[in-house]
Write a structure and sequence with these properties.
This protein is an alpha+beta fold and 447 residues long. The chain has a domain of 300 residues: Alkaline Phosphatase, subunit A, CATH 3.40.720. 30% of the residues lie in helices and 18% in strands. It has eleven helices and 20 strands. It has an eight-stranded mixed sheet, sandwiched between helices. A two-stranded antiparallel ribbon has the order 1-2.
Length: 447
């Protein structure tokens, strides 16, 4: 059948522009046209965890398919068929290379660029373009936002944060140019308004004020458009639209609930807006939900998400680990500290599992949102005690629209550049690239 509605259809209201999820009415019937699988876009996201991992509990004991999940990765059991564990990859440019200390700043800034940062805490920062921005420069014009940068921990853009390295290096994962980082947004409310508000800030502010005054949802302002659209849709698309709106309203409600909490004061005296959840898990999951909504509505196809900055000394009292993460990472072989590190690692993986399970539950024709994506989670440091940058903890989820063969543990030759993985991903998203940072060629055994 021919398309009934455009892929770019949005529902509009006061200060509101809600994009739609992938619907059958936007193209030929997926049940009748096998080639229509190509209609669903491919997406990729890069998720960063700080301070490395306790690799003994991370690395699977067997290679190939049907590998037993080690303790840290057990929360991923429901999506193991969509998961690849990639062992042996190296981030050589995060090593000192004559520059001395500063492994945390180098690890985070080199993770997506594959470049060695200039050691400076002045304005003359320089590293390289990150893989997400290489993609955004080529395909970003196809979506409302070329890329999306999310995080749960802020950071300064200047000053000395790690042994003479600028705070910009240890606060940013995405780099638009070799001297310009893309600052991440940590406030869920601002992300929500950016994704689903109009471009005019005055309209967004008016919409928010009106919603708060009358206790209305952003969906109330597009109710008439939504009602008219439903008449054009078949039953499957109506269900999909209802599920999408339910997710949107749930996220909006949780953000509103967080905004009603009192402001919290950080140990350094900074005031954190009440809209940023004080519960770290809720903060992470809200950001996961926003990322899913952004991909589902095709608002962007490229994203980065920093769980916490490298070198973060966040406490994890919520899982009964009151010590700071960075302090624990310097475990010195202490078994108790390693056990607590394992709990932190597993907590992070549980949030990753939450994201992937959400994506797997969203159908896009004969595939799912997760099927049509490539999601990397990893760190630029392996063992936080050694500060080594080889044998990194790297996971790849999704099948890239059928171009990847997940469900395996693959061990690569020592010193294989992490950036070789990114070249393979860029190929699959339609942005073939010959070189990225210290890459030496496309990573093998992905499909």
């Amino acid at each position: 059948m021919n398309a009934i509605i455009s892929r770019r259809t949005v529902l509009k209201g006061l200060g509101t522009a809600i994009a739609l999820p992938f619907l059958e009415a936007m193209g030929p019937s997926l049940a009748l046209a096998d080639s229509s699988r190509r209609a669903a876009p491919k997406r990729m996201a890069f998720i960063y965890i700080p301070n490395g991992a306790h690799m003994a509990n991370w690395t699977p004991s067997a290679e190939g398919a049907n590998f037993p999940l080690p303790p840290t990765l057990e929360p991923l059991k429901l999506i193991q068929d969509q998961l690849s564990v990639l062992t042996g990859l190296t981030l050589n440019t995060a090593r000192p290379l004559g520059d001395g200390p500063g492994d945390h700043a180098r690890a985070m800034s080199a993770f997506l660029t594959g470049a060695h940062p200039r050691k400076t805490h002045g304005a003359d920062i320089k590293i390289g373009i990150s893989v997400d921005q290489v993609a955004a420069q080529k395909i970003g014009q196809e979506t409302k936002f070329p890329s999306l940068e999310l995080g749960c921990e802020g950071g300064k853009q200047a000053g000395n944060c790690d042994s003479g390295y600028s705070c910009a290096y240890s606060s940013n994962l995405s780099w638009r140019t070799e001297t310009t980082p893309n600052a991440k947004e940590i406030n869920p409310r601002l992300v929500f308004e950016r994704l689903f508000g109009s471009q005019a800030k005055s309209d967004v502010d008016a919409n928010r004020t009106k919603r708060e005054r009358y206790k209305k949802s952003i969906l109330d302002f597009v109710a008439e458009d939504a009602r008219k659209l439903r008449f054009k849709l078949g039953a499957p698309d109506q269900r999909k639209l209802d599920e999408y709106f339910a997710s949107l309203r749930e996220v909006e409600t949780r953000i509103a609930r967080a905004s009603q909490l009192p402001e919290a004061k950080a140990p350094n005296g900074l005031v954190i807006p009440g809209v940023v959840p004080q519960d770290y898990q809720e903060h992470l999951r809200l950001m996961c939900d926003l990322l899913v909504l952004a991909f589902q509505a095709d608002l962007t196809r490229t994203a980065t998400f920093v769980f916490a900055n490298d070198g973060s000394n966040r406490s994890y009292k919520l899982i009964e680990v009151p010590e700071g993460h960075h302090d624990l990472s310097h475990h010195g072989g202490n078994k108790d500290k390693q056990a607590k590190l394992g709990k932190i690692n597993r907590f992070h993986i549980s949030q990753f599992a939450y994201l992937l399970e959400k994506m797997k539950a969203i159908q896009e024709g004969e595939r799912t949102l997760l099927d049509n994506s490539m999601i990397v989670l990893g760190a630029g440091i392996s063992d936080g005690n050694r500060h080594n940058h080889d044998d990194l903890p790297i996971l790849l989820a999704g099948s890239g629209g059928g171009t990847l063969k997940p469900g395996r543990h693959v061990r690569y030759k020592k010193e294989t550049p992490l950036t070789n993985l990114y070249l393979g991903m860029l190929d699959r998203i339609g942005v073939p690239t010959e070189k990225l940072g210290d890459s030496t060629g496309k990573l093998e055994s992905l499909s």
